[in-house]
Structure formats: structure tokens, C-alpha cells
User: Fold these one by one.
Assistant:
Number 1:
Amino acid sequence: MEISFDDVKYIYQPNSPFEHRAIDNLSFTIPSGSFVAVIGHTGSGKSTMIQHLNGLLIPTHGEVRVGDFSLKADRKKTNLKALREQVGVVFQYPEHQLFEETIQKDIAFGPSNFGVSEEEIQRRIHSSLQAVGLSSDMLERSPFDLSGGQMRRVAIAGVLAMEPNVLVLDEPTAGLDPKGQREIMDMFHDLHEDKGLTTVLVTHSMEDALAYADYCIVMDHGEMYMQGKPLEVFRQKEALNAVGLEVPEIIELLAKLEAELDISIPYEKQSLQELATLINSKLKGGAST
Amino acid sequence: MNSSMVIGQYVPGKSIVHELDPRTKISIIFFFVIIVFFANSFMSYLLLTLFAVGSVFITRIPLSFIVKGLKPVWFIIIFTFFLHVFMTKEGNILFTIFSYPIYSGALIQGISISLRFFLLILVTSMLTLTTTPISITDAIESLLDPLKKLRFPVHELALMMSISLRFIPTLMQETEKISKAQASRGVDFRSGPIKERMKAIVPLLVPLFVSAFKRAEELAMAMEARGYQGGEGRTKLRELVLTKKDYYVIAFFILVITGVFLTRQ
Ligand SMILES: Nc1ncnc2c1ncn2[C@@H]1O[C@H](COP(=O)(O)OP(=O)(O)O)[C@@H](O)[C@H]1O
Ligand SMILES: [Mg+2]
């Protein structure tokens, strides 16, 4: 589903001494089916922004559109439940939302709230559990007996079981081990491709933004700082450093090679091995002439 | 965080009221609460009202913010007023509403009782508005110090208070976070039949308890790891000291009290 923000502003606790303008002047459009990375320093308003996507927050000013749904300050009733069925949100540390006695029941919670039939729920439990890489014989266990990483996977399965069209991920891999991080990110990417989802990923990992996203939104102090294709955004090292962000190491290396040795290699998601071979051949080629 | 609830919320600031020793504030409020029940004339009420509203003014916290935050209390104040107006039968009949006589004594009674109530709430909420929970517990510990002689666990009590106060905002944030997560999974906390709404509490409460217990365990472990062993011989990072300001304010308050007693009838 297409997502668009039109001059959105959000103020926490308006008209009080704690009033805080968390986002302002935010306008962008995300075409249906794209994978967007939202990056920015802590406190730049990323989490606030994504909470508009399923109507947890309603803009103080401006309009948010998700597919045919519209969220606006003065509009009375948008069917939030229907919107939330379409937009699955994986929050930061989603394992904190587990509460049922068994993994099975916890995964079934979302779909049954939306009135999905019992058979369909069973099918979804198995497919989402498989997607997050857990085996079906865990279904009767308590989610509280699992390791942190496994709990995370169960919580994610609970969101996937809603089979949303838009998947919103707020730092979904924070605090996981590197292998777990890659597995989960690969899983989200595969799902995105297979199901034709629209995915919005909030991340602190520039590497992930580069590897998975086809569009980047950079936020700073609640406002749009930059947007564009990952390669275009990451080309602007100084601008990113100015707001406390780094450039992925690979991009930095290629930029250095170009600046210091005059070797230009366009980045096309090559693996480290492929890049090493390329650089090697260029260096040798350069030396022979 | 719930923005409509002012009671118990600290608003940072730099006014005299903020900077007073918390013991001064607690003592003044303690005596104010007692004095309010001694007021019985127009002048004595006026003095107390001026004192309370004046102090609010000095804090620079917008009055509108406080008044709005006292919303749940307004109802009780107004209810008390009408209760007294209709139930008291003293003085002359002023007028009748639907052939129900309203006495002059009733009006005075209604106004004074609800004014007392308002003043009490205003002054006590000002304590929490201008004092961090930590200084309040420090002050209570210091004020209760004499009880230590009677083997009363003052330090432990203060510690329990400050830990609970410290975790109230954390718990509120957690509540908000989890209710948002469950709302995203299709729970509706706001509408639907009561039975459904009661059921919707479970997915909120279970994670809250789980995380509260986990937090308590971690805190206990961290305290033990740092060798915490109770109040004996423990020094304070922030010593409470009475300054000139405190003495001036106390002197002024004694003047007000004297004024109230002089203008009583
Ligand atoms: N519930 C809230 N009440 C008041 N202020 C908030 C609340 N949530 C976030 N904020 C503030 O809004 C700003 C943006 O926060 P957030 O959207 O969480 O940023 P990010 O996810 O980029 O770290 C921060 O300054 C934060 O302190
Ligand atoms: Mg965040």
C-alpha cells in the first residue's frame, strides 16, 4: 500500500510544560511495494513517525495516508482496526509483548482479534513460526521459558501471523547476536519479496539500510534531513556525519579507494570476496600500465 | 504519560518554591493543612487563599495547567458544595429553588467547605509539582529521624518509597508501550462491551508484571553487587541544608498563621 505524509507535525503532551514537538514539516511518499529504511540519531523522531502508520498516533497537524486510509487531526472516525489489520508493527524489543501461556496462543492472539477463522489461524501459526526459524514442536511451550533471541522470534511470528500488507519494523534486531541479526533481516527481506509487502525499517545499522532498502529517509530533530536511494544518501558522508551518522564501511572504503588511488568501483551489492577480487585486478591492472 | 493528571508530577523550575529545602515545604504544608480547619472568617480564608495562590504564582507553573490537571478533583469540590448547600439548614432563607429553601448559612457552609478542599489539594499538589520525588523521600527520612531511636526502620521505609516513586514513570512508559503493541495486534482498550474490555487488560497486565518482577530482581542484584547494606553509617550525596531563604519563608508563614488566628471569630 502506498504511504504518504503531508506536512505532518506531532506534539507530545500539547499545552503543558512537558509539551514536546517530536516531528515537524514531515512530507514524503513511499510507493507501494518498496523497502524503506528510516535512519537518524536517537530522539530524532523515528519511532514517533512510524506510530502514525497504524494510527497509534494521529498527527497534530497535516495528514498521513496509508492506502485508502487517512489520518488527520480533525477527522473523527477512521476505521483504525481495519487499518491495523493491514499494517503489522514490530516494536523495539517486541518480546515484551508476549503474555500467553503457550507460544501457539500468543501467535494466534493477533489474527483472532481480527476475526480470522480457526483453520486459517492454525495455518498461519505454522507458516509464521517456520518463517522465523522455529520448529513446530515448540508450540505448546511457554514463551517465557525461551532464550531472549527465541522470544524475539516468537513475538515477530505473532505479528507476521496477522499477514499484513505493510510491515513496520522498529529496530527489530537490536540486542541480538550478529548471526541472529542477519537471519532475522534476511527473513524480513525474503518475506518482503515473496509477499510483495511495503516495508518500513527503522534501523541504526547503516549496513542494513544499504543491504536491504531501496529508499532511505534520514531524520534529524523531528524533520526530514535527507531522502533518496541508499547509494545517493551514503555518498554524502559529511552531511551524515554532521547529524551523528556514519557511512557503511564498504561505501567508505570504495570512496577512499577512489579518492586516494583513483580506482572507481560502482557498488552493486557485491560480496566482500567479489570486491576483493575486483580491487585486486584493478590494482594490478593499474600497476601494469 | 498521562497528560491530564497533575497530582504527583514534578515540573522542573527555578523559583524560590522549587529551591526551598523539601523539609521546609513539607512542614509548611503539614501546618497549612491543620490551619485550614481553623479558618472560620472571611479574612482568615482570604489570608490562606492569598498564601496558596500566591505560592502557585511564584512557582511560575501556569495556573491553567494546574487547574486543568485537577479536573478529577473539581467534580468532588463541586459535589461537596451542592451537598452542603442543600443539606444545611441554618440562618435565613435566602431564596427557594423549586420550592426547596436555600439558607444563607448553607451557602456560607458550602463555599467554605469546598474552598478548604480546594486549598488543601492546591497546596499539597504544589509540593509534588515543585519537588523531585527523591528530595521528598530524603526530607521524610530526615524528618522521621528521631524515630530511629525507637528502632523504627526509617531508612528502609524511605528507600522503599524512593524506589517505588522512581519506577512510577518507568511503569507508565512500559504500560504505554505495551498497550500500543497490543493495540497493534488488534486489541481495543477503548470501546466494546465491558466484558471484552476487562479481557483486554490481561495482555497488558501480564507483560507489565513480568517486566516489573524482572526489574526488581535486577535492581536487587545490582544493589547487592555494589555492597549496599542499609542505612547504618551511610552518607548522602545531597545533604539537606536549611538556608536563609528557608528561615525567611518559615517566618513569613508564621506571620500568616498568626494572621489567621487573629482574624478568626
Ligand atoms: N510518550 C512521549 N511523551 C513525550 N515525549 C516523547 C514521548 N515519546 C517520545 N518522546 C520524545 O520525542 C522525541 C522523539 O522520540 P522518538 O520518536 O522515540 O525518537 P527515536 O525513535 O528516533 O529515537 C524524543 O525527544 C523523545 O524524548
Ligand atoms: Mg526509537
Note: The pocket of adenosine-5'-diphosphate (ligand 1) is lined by residues A 12-13, 20, 22, 40, 42-48; B 1 (CB under 6 Å).
Number 2:
Amino acid sequence: MEYDVRITVNGERYQARVPASLTLLRMLREVLHLTGTKEGCSIGECGACSVILDGKLVNACMVLAVECDGSVVRTVEGEGAMDKLSDLQQAFVDNHALQCGFCTPGMLMAARELLERKPDPTDDDIIEAMAGQICRCTGYETAIEAVRRVARKGQAGGGK
Amino acid sequence: MTVPFHSDKHRYVGGNAERIDALDKVTGAAQYVHDMAVPRMLFGRMKLSPHAHARIVRIDTSKAEALPGVRAVLVGSELDTRLGLYMIDKFILARDVVRYQGEAVAAVAAESEDIARRACELIEIDYEPLPAIFDPEVALADGALLVHPDLHTYRYMKGVFFPRAHSNVAHHQKIRKGDVDKGFAEAYRVFEHKFTNPPVAHAPLETHVTIAQYLPGSRAQIWTSAQSPFTVRNLFAVAFGLPHNSIRVQIPYVGGGFGGKAGIHLEPLAWCLSRKAGGRPVKITATREEEINTLPSRQGLKTHIKTGVTRDGKITGLKVQFLWDAGAYADYGVNIGRAAATSGAGPYEVPNCWIDSLVVYTNKVFGTAYRGFGHLEVLWGVERNLDLIARDLGIDPYELRMRNVLRAGALTITGEKVTANHGRPDLCLEKVAQEIGFENRPKEPVDPKKLPLRGKVRGKGVALLQKAPAMPVFTACSAIIKFNEDASVNVLISGVDYGQGTYTMLRQVVAQELSVPLDKVQVVFDCDTATQPYDWQTVASRFTVMGGNACIEAAHDCIAQLKHVAGQVLRAPENELICEDERVFVRHTPEQSLSYREIVLGYTYPNGNSIGGPIVGRGRYIAQGLTHLHPETGQGKAALDWTYGAHGVEIEVDLETGDIEIVHIASAFDVGKVLHEGMCRTQVQGGVIQGLGSALLEGFVFNDKGRMLNPSFVDYKLLTAKDLPRKMSAFFVETPQLDGPYGARGIGEHPMVSVPGAIGNALRDALGIDFHDLPLNSERVYLALKRARTAKA
Ligand code: FES
Ligand code: FES
């Protein structure tokens, strides 16, 4: 079975006909060619595919595209503006909060969702929010510090 | 006027500039093979063996072939090529026999992932299960079944590796120094201890992924998530008998490697599928389960150490057997058995040493390089062993280490003389012990029987480490620096930066050597064997030293060419010229100068005459002074450089659950010179956490049929942001390496080595219980506590 899905991603509207079994992750990557969002496990265990779906953080590998009809999705590609990094992106750059970078899009989305939900998070909040994001390279500390810095500046907000 | 040169304007080495790849990676612009699609691309999938050891009786692919959208189906009998880096022992797809559960037996290329998956399900295979062998000790026994009955016919790197025909031994590395029996005879006491490490997953977040295309004329185009473009190309060329220049390997951003993407993996299979599918490109993306269960892992290890010591704790003799659980193939694993043996005594002086390091085939997923290359495994035993001895002798473990640590003038176990420029393990130990207050810990030995049932207790431990790059004697690297119109440069080099930050560091080196701003230097991602100069492999923490030296030489070559042209224009001898701040000056009259921009593509005189031409700098470096090791004694020079280090750790153990929390872990390394503060620090942070994973959680579990029980992130857990130490600190000692760039040594792998030993020692300090097996998960600790409490006195 195929279904029409209308979806707004990073402020742009898309429409596509997709099989019922297609995940949101594969729709983003393979149909819309937004490859910033990564796949690390495809079973909801690594967070590489984290995106913000109607304001909530989800593992895009665990959501079907057809469930997202009419939804608003945000991915790493919408995190900054063209040639202007968001505060979070800048903090990740400043703190060397990435190495191979494969987990970075998911990390940024998890951090963004936290800061929107809770603009003044405690350290425990930050750790809790990042705990679903597996990173094999950095050891997390630099990413936590990056989020902490943005939160302390109290200027959470995307480039857009 | 002020003197324009001798300024600090372009001093970058030791600085902390932002990562060269950061912008691409925070915006999602970074492209990995994972993200790539090329026109007419097919999707490849593998059919895996459910058996650990079985004869393939029949394969029927007809149903798979009949499925619409399937373009090629391959089985092992069509591919008679064996692959391997050092030991050429692995077919592209299993032929006749499968040797581990998870091994690829057949493969499909189809129009979509879903069709390819469905087609794999439709392939019918009849197996005749065979008895299997899972324990290297059992595999060594006389009359043990042979995982590779034809081992004696295999090709391998001769003179370096020593497989034993008609056995399961893929390599036997011997180290013989002095007279170990004499060492034991002189000893006040002789201790024997055994330790084990399980096999472990690399778990790069990007799984192995390859796109390969068969091109007309038996040529190959390959995009791959790999660490070493030239080694992929070389092994590919050798395997298929193709000229090297008919194969093009391109490597864009790579989502982590940790050794697992060194050597060659899915590239040949994807290319063979493409060949069978009429030349359409084929992409194979390993699933997470395949990443863990089909692609290679870290080898397991069993260690048996016998140590003779004097009354005051000086080691007189050391006899060690390392049994490496190679799994079903040892193509890369043989070198781990070799390299780790050369480090098998740790950073200690041992006058009489005898090591047998045996790489043994079993019917499990096979092993390969993993960050630290055998050293985390070996040093787990070495560092626990010393604490066990220290306690029995009543000597402080810190003191015992200081009495035996390698110092200038000592001879290593392979006969290498330690000099003042080798680095200082003693200073690293001193620093971490200070940081965690090791001296001030309660020294009363803990009796586990007296521990309360609830609550938390603390303990402290230290451990030393060392590692040198493990690589062939001829290992080389080269770099090209080419100038652009605006006097910016592109640096071409073929070591891959898959996250370590090497390119960020090399940019600083090149900018400083050329005296240009950092943003004028681009180290080019997308390694391409067709256009970039040769490098051996990106492994072994060797890229900083070898790539750094090659870049410095290439920059000097540029400077010489700049001066050659400028000297003619400025009418000055080249040795009177100085290159600084993007200009060439005449030393005694600095007002006479030319900008780089005027020269880099050729200088044009006012009348139009032109001289010079585009400047291209060339640099290279080949490992200096390495020798083959003596086949019977292992004596020789195997090490380009040794990076020494130490960890000190304070832990808190929950007496009810066995959970370990890290209160503080302090780590120190003698890196020779910190070339980039942030890259060094973040390598340590990430490496220590990876080491904690090996120490506390990670390891494969198999059932009695050899089936892996935890091949997913559900059952194979990695540390998360919640599991971090309460405090981590990193320190660097700088004893310059004479031939390192600015005196630097590698630091990529070392942070994870000896983390388990430090934790194991702290656990002993906290509970009075000795652990010999990894990982130190809460279950193991809990059960040990329970046993100790109920044990009869
Ligand atoms: S890919 Fe979705 S959680 Fe791992
Ligand atoms: S930076 Fe590599 S997985 Fe996080």
C-alpha cells in the first residue's frame, strides 16, 4: 500500500507518495534527500536519527512516514540559517564537541528540543536529554559542556 | 621600522583552533558514504550463516533470482579469491564451509534494500553442522579439530609471521630475552596469574558501507567508509590481479573507525556484485547486527603470567603466554599477536623474558585491529598482575611500579635501548597518583567479609601503559601542498581523518611552517587514490608523526621554491631570504619583499616576462630504523616511537548492586609535544570513555553453539552521557621525540589502554577482591561480593 504524505520539514512543504512501511528516517534521507539525519541502528537504540516531530524529540527510525502526514519536522539542516550557525552549533564548534560527526545531527536535535522545553536546564536535565544519543568518539563531556554553555547564556534559540 | 619577521603572528602549534571539519559536521553538510547515492545504484545484501561451523551442502538461489528487481545473486563457489592483510585466509563469501555464525555465504544486488533483503530470505541453503571450537585453549590441544585444515597452503607475510601447519595456530610470536629460568632461580618469590578479555565490538556509529562499481576493462571505482584508501586499493589489486592504477578508491567523511575499518572489508563483494549486475554500482550498508556479528571485532585474550621478583619487588623474570582468540580468520589478527607481544611486559624493565603469543583460530566472529591493537588486552593482565604481586610482597603498588619502570639506559624486552628522549612513564604515573591522592588512601587491606551489605565503598588504583605503532618496517607517508591563486594552499595527504582531528592539527603545522593564516590552509577531505599521494594505513597512532613529518617537509619544499623565484626577482641569494607572514623578505633590507601571491603561480616582470610557475611542495616520511624481529627471539626494533602514559582512578562501588561509579579518573601521557591542545584533550576524553566501556560493560556473549547473543545495541550496551565519571582530567608530559614533528608522538589509541587495569586495581582496593576477567560489570562484581561474603575462612 502507498499513501500520500504531506509534511513540513524545516519550514518547507513536501508531498510524497510512500509505502506504508517506510520510516520517517528513510523518507527524510531517501525521498527528500535530507541526509543530515543519520542511521546508526534502525531499532531506536542510538539516537543518530533524532529529529523534532511536532515539537517532540523522536527516533525517526521508529516512526512511520504515514504517521507524519500533516506534521512539522525539524532536522539538523534547519538548525542554523545559511551561513549563520545557531548558538548550539557554534557551541559544538567552539568546544570540539564532535569527532567523526556521525552522532552530531542527532545530538544537536536532542539538545535543541531540551532547550525549547526547558530554557534553563540543570546539568542533570542536560545529561538526561543527551543520554539517548550514543557517541562512540567524544565521550560526551564536550557536548554536554556545549549545551551547558548555551543554556547558561540563556539565549537558546535557533539561527532561524 | 619594526622588523617584520620573527613575529609570533603565525605560531599555531600548541594552539587550540577550531576543527577543520566542524562546520560541515554541525550543519549536516558532511557527506559520508552512508549518505551517498550514484545513478543506477543497486543495493547489496548478504545472506549469513546461522551455524558456527558447517559444511555447505546445497545452495539454491533460483527463487531469489526470480524475484522481480533482483539483478545479481552471488555464492562463494563463484569467487575463488582469498583476502587478507597479513594472512590471506578469507574468501569473499564462504566456500564449502562456514567458520562462524554470521559469516556471509551468499549475496544479492537488487533495485531496493527491501527487494535485496527479501531475496536473501529466498536463498535456500542446506548445511551439515560440524563440531566447532570456541576456546583457544581447546583449539591448541593435540587432535583439536582444525578451523583451517589447509592453513599450510595459505599465503602470508613470510619472515614476519609464523603459522603452524596442521594446527589452529595462525601465528606464533616469540620474545626471548636473557634466561628466564635463571630469572626465576634468582627470585625471592614466583607468582602465577591468569587473566581474560572477551572479544569486543568497535561500534563506530557509521557501520561499514561501500559503493563499488565494475568499470569496463576490469577497472574498479570504489567509495568506501574505510581508514586506509591505499591499503584497500593494494589488497584489492593483489586479490584480483589488477593493475593498481585501474582501481580508484575514494573516502569521504567517515563515521568512526577505531581500527575496524582498517584493512579491506566489503569492497570486493560489492565490486563482484556490480560485475555480475552488468556494471551497475552496488552499495552495501552493513546493518548494526552485521557490524557486530559479521564484520570483525577485537579478539579475545587469555593471559597466563609467571613473574619472578626479588624481596624488594624488582622483577627478575617474566614468562607469559598470550592466547589470542582470533576467531575464524586471522588476516589482521596475526599482527595483534605480534605487536602486543613486543609490549607484553608493559613499560617495565625485565631482564629475563620469555613470551609466547599465539594467535589461535576458533569458530567465532574474527578479530581485527581495535584502538590500542592488543594493548588494552595485554595490559589488563600486566597491570593487575603487578598489584597482586605488590600486595603479597607488602609493597605499595605505586612503589613497585616505580622500582621497575623503564628508565633511560634500560633495555626493552625486544632489546631496544631506552634513551632520555623515549618519554617518561614515571612522570605520568607520578602525576596521576598525585591527582587522585593515591598516597593518602587508607592502606589497611579490606576484608570483604566485613563489608556491610549496603552502602558504598571507595577505592583507588593506578596503572601504566605504553604503545608503539605496529606496522611494517617500510611504512611510509607522503604529502603534497599546492598553492592556489590567492596563495592559499590545499594539503593532499592520504591518512584519513575519521574523527581523530589529525587534519586540524596538520593545518596548524602547515600554516606555521609556511607562515600563513590558518584559514589559508585546507587539508583536503575525500581521500582519493587517483589524485592523492601514497600513505600506508591510518592506524597505530602513527599519522601525527608520519603525516606531520611529511607535511613539514612539503612545506619546506614550498619555501625553497618560493625563495628560488623570489631570489631572482629580488636579486638576493636564497639563504638571505626569509619567508614570513605570506611574504618573502630580503633579510638585511626587509623593505625589499614579494608577497607569496606574486610568486605562487609564477612571477611576472613588468615587461611581461614570466618565471617560476605553480608551486607544488612535496614531502615524505618513511619509518626510520625499524628492523625485522628475529624469528626465534623477537629481538629487534619494532617501534617508531613509544607513547607512555598512566591512569589513576578513584571509584565508588555499590555494595548492594555491584555497580561501579567513577569518582575521578586522571590520565597523563608523554606526547612529546602537544601540537593541538583541544585535539589532544578530546582524544583523551573519548578514549578514556571507550576504555571504560571495555572495563565495565562490553564483551560478546555466545551460546554453546557459538551463536552470538548480543549483536545489537539492545543487548550490547555502550556507555551513555549518564555513565560519565564525576571528574576526568588529562595531563601531558612533553619529553620531545627526536624525530617527531616538533617532538610530538601519537596519542590516538593510548587513552583507552590500561583503563581496565586501573579500575581492577581500584576494585581490589575497595573490596579486597581480585578480579581477573573483563568486563567488570555489576553482575560480576555482585557475584564476587556474594561469594567472598559466604566463603569459609
Ligand atoms: S537509527 Fe534510530 S535510534 Fe538508531
Ligand atoms: S562524534 Fe563519532 S559518534 Fe559521536
Note: DSSP finds five helices and five strands in chain A.
